[in-house]
Amino acid sequence: MARKKPEGYLSAKDSRRISRYNRKVTNALEKQHKRKHVPESEYLTQMKDPNNTVEFDNLHSYFFTDVGTVKAVDGVTFEVPTGKTVGVVGESGCGKSVTSLSLMQLLQRPQGQIVEGEIRVNMGDKAYDIAKMPLEKMQEIRGNYISMIFQEPMTALNPVFRIGDQVDEVIKLHDKENLSKHEIRERTLKMLDMVGIANTEGVYRMYPHELSGGMRQRVMIAMALACSPRIIIADEPTTALDVTIQAQVLDLLRNLKDKINSSIMFITHDLGVIAEMADYVVVMYAGRIVEKGTVEEIFAHPCHPYTIGLMASKPVVGKQVDKLYAIPGKVPNPVNMPNYCYFKDRCEMCVEGCSGDYPHEVSVSPTHKVSCYRYYDGKVGESNG
User: Fold this and answer.
1) Quick one: 279 exposed, middle or buried, by C-beta within 10 A (0-12, 13-18, 19+)?
2) How many helices (H) and strands (E) does the chain have?
3) How many CB atoms lie within 10 A of CB 201?
4) Which of 88, 105, 132 is the last residue of a domain?
């Protein structure tokens, strides 16, 4: 949007124009968000498939910054089926966490806003559109129905409160059974025991800094699962952990998902974790989905050059190489995205059509879809748009 000088600086005039535009857009969106006593009919919707827990439909989440609009999530569409795990993969800054924060309505406002699209959540007897929900109603769903395990437990846990008080608070906030103080404490101890913490009474009285990284991560999982949510968002829950603890946490998540019949949206960089955990995989690049399919399809037949590059860059047991493969080049500037395929400048498999508009989605199989000109010849599947 902004016209830049050759040396990359914005003029004062451009900067003022951007600020005026940002204020106008964010004020209008904030006004919509903060309304009170909104009738339920405004955010009621219908699921396209009742077997899905969540459906993202053409989601656009932008950040209105001083240098222009960052299209962090730019037209994302995928589903999270009930009882399944969907892995969201991609390099840092591709929009994975922003997609999950949009579902929780936890974008850093007023700069971060959902500007277009729907996030349909299946409530059982009805469905809500999260993108249109007012803040007061969202408080009832967040934590109770949709829960998130954050990436870094040391920054997510409050350092001045004991572990027990923090887990108690989650249960108290969403308590529909009018539990007594003693019953809430018992429920917290049960949750800590469920996530594999042996000394539950001791940990209940401890502060976050007294626990190891693995223990803090377990506490975060206990907090997220305290109200038996229908959907769990795991935002790189094993990044800071060593391999043995990582395996335990993944086993724990898998077992708990089956125990409370939840769906998991699993965000990670680690393809090994995805292969082990996920039923479906969504590959994101620069705010868009470049490929999606079942875990077998993505790992056995990766189609998009970016997915192929990701697969080639991981080490293989028993295969000796001098140097691991790395995808050349860098991600385009998110403020000034090109109007052709975002991956074109880094791609080593370009074909004739790549200089055209951004490629639309092509079906390789009923469940496997890719956005790439290499599949436009009609031999592999028909295009959707």
Assistant:
1) middle
2) 12, 13
3) 9
4) 132
Q: Is residue 115 part of a domain?
A: yes
**Pair 120, 129: CB distance under 8 Å:** yes
Cα 187-193-197 angle, rounded to 5 deg: 135
* pTM over cut 0.70: yes
* pLDDT tens, N- to C-terminus, the chain (385 residues): 555 455 457 788 888 999 999 999 999 998 888 888 889 999 999 999 999 999 999 999 999 998 889 999 999 999 999 999 999 999 888 999 999 999 999 999 889 999 999 999 999 889 999 999 988 888 889 888 999 998 888 888 999 999 999 999 999 988 878 889 999 999 999 999 988 888 999 999 999 999 988 889 889 988 988 888 999 999 988 776 778 878 888 888 888 888 878 899 999 988 888 998 999 999 999 999 999 999 999 999 999 999 999 998 888 788 888 888 889 988 888 888 888 999 999 998 998 888 889 999 999 999 999 999 998 865 444 444 4
Residue 49 lies in a domain: yes
In this structure, the answer to whether residues 87 and 172 fall within a common structural domain is no
Residue 16 and residue 46 share a domain = yes
Statement to judge: residues 75 and 164 lie in one domain? no
